[in-house]
Amino acid sequence: MNRVFIRTYGCQMNERDSEAVAAMLRARGYVIVDSERSADVVLLNTCSVRDQAEQKAIGKAGYLAARKKRNPDFVLGVMGCMAQNRGADLLDRLPDLDLLVGTQKFHQIPDHLDNIMASLRAQGPRPSTIIDLEAEAGSQNTIRDHLFTSEGDHAHDASAGAGEHANGSRPKQVTAFISIMQGCNMACTFCIVPKTRGEERSRPIDDIVAEAEELASRGVRDITLLGQIVTSYGRREFPFVDGKSPFVQLIERVHAIPGIARIRFTSPHPRGFKDDLVQAFRDLPKLCPNVHLPLQSGSDRILRLMNRPYTRDRYLEIIESLRRAVPEMYFSTDIIVGFPGETEEDFEQTRDIFERVGFDMAYIFKYSVRTGTPAAEMAGEVSTEDKERRNQVLLDLLHRQSLARNEQLLGRTVEVLVEGPDKVGRRLSGRTAGNRLVHFAGDARLIGELIPVKIERASAASLVGEVV
Q1: What region, left, alpha or beta, does residue 183 occupy, with left being phi > 0 and alpha being psi -120 to 50 degrees?
Q2: pLDDT tens per residue, range 220-239
Q3: In the CATH scheme, what is the homologous superfamily, with its name and number, of domain 413-467?
Q4: Residues spanned by CATH 3.30.750.210 within the chain?
């Protein structure tokens, strides 16, 4: 009765939260399995950014609840953003849930499961749904445990689809996420995250550095620092030193750790790119030349409606300052098409800036109403047909831009961090510092090493090369 499967929907923050919950459960004696069919307990870590993500999780939970008719001891829980957003009202749709846990209570899940399992073993009446959704001071400090895997060992989800994330069996962990803060104080009119994640709360620098040192001691080479607005890290808790923000101070501390070869971060906000952060890209060689910089819209009018505190000109200034610091910088972004009131002229401004920047990667979303956000009450709904068309225009442009950028690497030798076998299992794969995926033939002993690879073929999605 102690086999647990965790399915994760949504972002890298959710993926990191699931990994921490899995590690805490394993330390408590639970076995983390890679299939819901073999699990005694299934936990769904959910997303609320779009209604589609919530409906997908609700559908999965309804399907799993049917197992209780065949197996009364089966345990089903929902955790994360949807639990926080919908609260106990979710039980109207899913009355058979055993556990409903919000975003600040992940660390309580082992205790809650222990209590549920004890009741089942006692063969008494099944307890009512455990609901734990309240805010908790210091909860940002509880996402610190990692689920280290070795060959033949299973992690929390090896079968996730689009919009879901997974860590299956792998011989060696080369990359890792570190959650450095929780919450968001921004008030973007389209976004539900401040409601689901609460206000900004940052972890102490020393604690984060200790976590990174532990990861390095286990062979992790590439670390991604995570936060809802990661560039806001520590701005209320910690002082600036020598003109450097707490976030840049943290990057410098992680940069000094032996064994760590690459540092990345996500997701930032354009207003966080002051001179100190731009100079860090210039001066710190481990800080990867790869920036995810959410744009959302290229129209100043729509940006104001979104309550995004920058203009298209300011955004372009940031891009140019980063390219001056690192000429071969790679950029990715987030775009919303079809925001209420978006005209063809507004969209054309987005298309223009999308092409001028030459994004190598982008997450392009068709606007969907999130109940409880200011945008949900705005007039000027854009038709489904216009959303689809605008979405496809940007997808086609992205394909051309990504392919052109990858083709620039043909014939060149690039440094690749070997992460493990590719999805087919016939070759190895890894990433460049610019976050481009590379496939190549090689021995598994190369995993975790930085190696030179000469690029021979290129597509929009990946590269193929030969080890030099």
Answers
A1: left
A2: 999 999 999 999 999 989 99
A3: Nucleic acid-binding proteins (2.40.50.140)
A4: 174-288
Cα-flanking dihedrals φ and ψ of residue 264, to 5°?
Answer: -130, 170
In words, the CATH class of domain 174-288 is alpha beta
One-letter amino acid identity for 456?
Answer: E
What letter does residue 167 receive in the DSSP assignment?
B
Q: Which of 391, 390, 320, 325 lies closest to 357 in space, CA to CA?
A: 320
Cα–Cα distance between 264 and 239 in angstroms, integer?
23
CA separation for the pair 215, 209 (Å, rounded): 10
Residues forming CATH 3.30.750.200 domain(s) in the chain = 290-309+316-407
pLDDT at 170: 45
Q: Does the pTM exceed 0.85?
A: yes
Q: Does domain 290-309+316-407 have CATH number 3.40.1160.10?
A: no
Over residues 36-57, the pLDDT tens digits come to: 999 999 999 999 988 888 999 9
Cis-peptide into 245, omega within 30 deg: no
H helix intervals, 158-245: 193-197, 205-217
pLDDT of residue 252: 98
Calpha distance 294→278 (Å, rounded): 16
Amino acid at the residue 284:
L
pLDDT in tens, 225-274: 999 999 999 998 999 999 999 999 999 999 999 999 999 999 999 999 99
Residue that is written with structure tokens 């086609």 in the block: 396
Residue 399 has pLDDT above 90, yes or no: yes
Band the pLDDT of 426: cuts 50, 70, 90.
confident
Q: Which residues of 165-203 are buried (b: 16+ CB within 10 A; e: fewer)?
A: bbbeebebbbbbbbbbbbbbebebbbbbbbbbbbebbbb
Which residue spans of the chain are classified as CATH 2.40.50.140? Answer: 413-467
pLDDT confidence of residue 143: 94
209, 265, 191, 202: which is closest to 237 by C-alpha? 202
Instruction: Give strand pairing partners of 200.
Output: none
Q: Assess contact for 100 and 131: CB atoms under 8 A.
A: yes
Angle between helices 344-357 and 384-407 (to 10 degrees): 10
What confidence category does residue 216 fall into, taking pLDDT thresholds of 50, 70 and 90? very high
